[in-house]
């Protein structure tokens, strides 16, 4: 209870045994928190004399920028929804910008940013080059990364998911069903999330005594066409896989299209697992087994880091939210095991 002026939302979450987004929901009076959890969080808040947004950290203009590479994807919609929810509850505005690989986009965005006195920038699966970062630093605008592309700077707060654990859980689920030839359609190889999910996939195979086979690994760009193309290549192998772990739900949807075009039944002939747990997973046929990552909570927490003024010295700058496997109807034992 000393250092009350420096207690952070993450401290409260740790003491209460809950996630930081849950603490944020309690602070904002949201209904979707169990009564016993709400009581426990409120008790910890009182014990620490937690003061939200102390006067020294009041946003000057009440504005946060969210920069994202692609706007028209289900993943982006969830990130925008989480950021908008958190900003609305905090009484601050949100500006959403699409910055593609074209550096002209980034320069135009920085020009606009300089004129609107933003209180913080959320950079979601996007990147700034060194000159752009230096210009942002010169403006004195705090930066928080959401699902960073590569290894983030230790001095910059970043919010992500336990991607390695998610890849492990997805693959262990398939191994547990009896699959031995398990393919992976991974995302872009330079992305931190891709590397982690691939690492979890390989670890699960090795734990089961299965040697990862290069011919069962394909890379794509996270979108359905790449998943479709990769699945068709896998089907053309002399010994096709009995299961596919797709690095994103969108890639899994592409794999669905490829398998169905060849008359391959899911999961009777080939099982499929995705990653993200987008809303559409319940609506495809069959409903997709997938790894859930808490995209809305990731964005909410990133906004909270801006509101809290960043992380204290000694606090972890990298925060990873837990993933979990959601089992639906797209996985089953391989045909030979039935």
Automatic annotation (TrEMBL):
It holds the Pfam family Peripla_BP_3. GO terms for molecular function: DNA-binding transcription factor activity; transcription cis-regulatory region binding. InterPro entries: HTH_LacI (IPR000843), LacI/GalR-like_sensor (IPR046335), Lambda_DNA-bd_dom_sf (IPR010982), Peripla_BP_I (IPR028082). The keyword Transcription regulation applies. Keywords: DNA-binding, Transcription, Transcription regulation. SUPFAM superfamilies: lambda repressor-like DNA-binding domains (SSF47413), Periplasmic binding protein-like I (SSF53822). Residues 7-61 form the HTH lacI-type domain. The keyword Transcription regulation applies. This is LacI family transcriptional regulator. The lineage of its organism: Bacteria, Bacillati, Actinomycetota, Actinomycetes, Propionibacteriales.
């Amino acid at each position: 209870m000393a250092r009350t002026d420096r207690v952070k939302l993450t401290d409260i979450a740790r003491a209460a045994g809950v996630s930081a987004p849950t603490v944020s929901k309690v602070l904002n009076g949201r209904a979707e928190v169990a009564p016993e959890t709400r009581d426990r969080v409120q008790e910890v808040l009182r014990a620490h004399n937690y003061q939200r947004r102390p006067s020294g950290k009041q946003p000057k203009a009440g504005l946060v920028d969210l920069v994202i590479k692609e706007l028209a994807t289900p993943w982006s919609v969830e990130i925008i929804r989480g950021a908008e929810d958190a900003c609305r509850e905090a009484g601050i505005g949100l500006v959403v910008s699409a910055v593609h690989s074209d550096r002209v986009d980034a320069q135009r965005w920085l020009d606009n940013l300089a004129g609107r006195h933003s209180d913080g920038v959320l950079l979601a699966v996007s990147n700034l080059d060194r000159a752009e970062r230096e210009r942002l630093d010169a403006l004195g605008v705090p930066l928080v990364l959401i699902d960073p592309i590569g290894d983030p700077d230790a001095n910059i707060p970043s919010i992500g998911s336990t991607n390695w654990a998610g890849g492990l859980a997805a693959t262990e689920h398939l191994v547990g069903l009896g699959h031995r030839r398990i393919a992976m359609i991974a995302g872009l190889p330079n992305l931190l999330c891709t590397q982690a999910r691939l690492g979890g996939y390989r670890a699960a195979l090795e734990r089961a005594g299965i040697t990862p086979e290069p011919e069962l690994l394909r890379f794509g760009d996270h979108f359905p066409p790449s998943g479709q193309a990769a699945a068709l290549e896998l089907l053309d192998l002399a010994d096709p896989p009995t299961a596919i772990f797709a690095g994103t739900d969108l890639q899994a949807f592409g794999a669905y299209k490829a398998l169905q075009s060849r008359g391959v039944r899911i999961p009777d002939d080939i099982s499929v697992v995705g990653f993200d747990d987008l809303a559409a997973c319940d609506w495809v046929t069959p409903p997709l087994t997938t790894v859930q990552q808490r995209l809305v909570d990731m964005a909410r927490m990133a906004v909270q880091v801006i509101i809290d003024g960043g992380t204290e010295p000694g606090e972890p700058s990298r925060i990873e939210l837990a993933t979990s496997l959601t089992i639906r109807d797209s996985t089953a034992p391989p045909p030979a095991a039935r």
